[in-house]
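Bench notes, afternoon.
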Amino acid sequence: MLTNATVADLLRPCEKSRAGLYDLVLIFAGVVFIGLSAQLSIGFPVPFTGQTFAVLMIGALYGSRLGSMCLVSYVLAGAAGVPLFSNFGSGVLFLSGPTGGYLIGFIAAAYVVGLLAERGWDRRVWTTVLAMIFGNLVLYTFGLLWLFCLIGFSTKVLVVGLYPFIVGDLLKIALAAILLPSGWKLLGYFGLTGKKG
């Protein structure tokens, strides 16, 4: 199946050496963006961060390959001690703790959303909504399965690992559904969408 260009593809230089540097810069910028977003906390019944929004946006903007590479870099850097996780957390213990499944799920979620973006799902409101829903489903699958391993099969897992975040996730999905198609319209206005990745 032929794929559409992602936003990152549209701006990628044609020269191989410059394209490699471009990818490295995007990965670094993506890691910083996710790390900063993880520190943004808004209080509802439970505080939620901008981290998952950043993860899914990176997937949509970068595509499956570059998006998942960015998330692998984010998780490895955070595990190695760079304070990128929520509340400036870091360390390998985050991977074995309650958030470990979600952190690994970030990689898979970025890949899935990136794959859908490569098929043009990020260009229309309703397909963007669906792409973000699928990304969240992947993310929660990893996160909740890991919590089940830690806590045991119990509804408590859903109470602590899913229900409190639904409202925040719906708001993030709505924001993505506004930003991504609008961004594509803006790129079209400047004549950038004709370039193939």
